[in-house]
UniProtKB/TrEMBL annotation:
One of its GO terms (molecular function) is protein serine/threonine phosphatase activity. Residues 134-154 are annotated as: Disordered. Pfam families: PP2C. InterPro entries: PP2C, PPM-type-like_dom_sf, PPM-type_phosphatase-like_dom. Gene3D superfamilies: PPM-type phosphatase domain (3.60.40.10). It comes from the Eukaryota. This is PPM-type phosphatase domain-containing protein. PANTHER family: PROTEIN PHOSPHATASE (PTHR47992). Residues 53-374 form the PPM-type phosphatase domain.
Amino acid sequence: MGGCCSTDSHHGIKRGGLFKKKFVDKEYEEDEGDDMRYGESGARIRLKGSSGYTSMYTQQGRKGINQDAMTVWENFTGEKDMLFCGVFDGHGPYGHKVARHVRDNLPTKLCKAIQLSKLNSCKYGDVGDDHKDLTNKYGENSSTKSDIDDDKDGQNDDNGSFCLLSLSSSEACFIKSFKEMDQELSLDSTIDSFCSGSTAVTVVKQGDNLIIANLGDSRAILCTRGDKNQFVPIQLTVDLKPDIPSEAERIKNCKGRVFSADEEPDVYRIWMPDCDCPGLAMARAFGDFCLKDYGLISIPDVSYRRLTKNDEFLVLATDGVWDALTNAEVVKIVASAKNRSMAAKLLVNRAVHAWKDKYPGCKVDDCAVVCLFFKDDPTLLVKSSSMVTRRSSIINASEFSLSRRFKSFRSVGANRYFEGDSVIVGVGSKDQEYWTDLQGVSRVNSIVKLPRFLSFRKSTSNLEEVDAH
């Protein structure tokens, strides 16, 4: 069951360490300190704190128990150059349980799927074909021919990796593991996920390759260097909202409804066919089984990026951060951290202050951040932090084009694939300006109203006053 295995007590890890805080629900209070655990194939698991290349921090908002969760798996699948990281934003009365269950179990499912796929790929010699196709189409950020040939021959790289997984195989592994995770939630009698669920934004890094899988409205951005050596944010994921045309079409085809309420005309939500509930503000999520027959899906949006020497770091965060800060502001804050181990905490603190300044009287949302740095020198970012680009309130959409900087292979369904030069998945290029949501400034609850029956067994009569996040 997942990665909550034995706690490391033999590597000089001090309990009660970096970032202490109290939670409302003692049952789900996180272990204090920069602790480390072991998971599938000996992977080192962190739920908080920092390492040489990562910084993590979460803070409870003002809506009740912290429903955000995060994790980093080093030596993922047992390989030294492979890393998994993810953040998960729960919603609904039991969203904290869903988010933490996904955090603890999804990486294990993905690990097993990747190991099996790599074994089959190396055995039958089909590794690299998808890389070759993308190299011919997209060029510099896809794998080079020499890289492909080396991988296809199954040779070990400097870090001991025995086989680079192809893009289509990686996508299939993510889709398979996300599907299994959702099925497990539907059968788990200890977690009522009928009207509770969680987002997930996850990244697997192997060498210079990133595979990104997104479910919901959490977000991943990358900081790279521009032509003048300035820091430039590149959004790697799309906030999968119900008003994206392809998402809305799917929901409506499944008899679900998508509309905005009079009191919040800019926020589109998913509603059940015959009642104005639950009003979920995202188009994909784990759990929320009251809507799974009406267009809500747990199929992730999967994309690929080949890192270059200009890429500096990656930031994964829940919408508590993105609702208060722009992508450019996030990059500037992380780059300004004097100590990279404190970068995530600094970002969360700035997001909380931004909430209070921009939305006085509004409840601050939970925040969770994972920062992944690509370079050894921790002072590299500090020296150039003053050069962070100062852009207008709307980032030029060309910065997020896949034509040169961001090459992707994406899906909106198990049997439907999209390749192209748009950062939007399942959205036509003419719709891109409407659906990128690059600034991401909103302050709404994920769920508006619970159905009359919270599950097939429980009435919501005693939960009507619950703030469902």
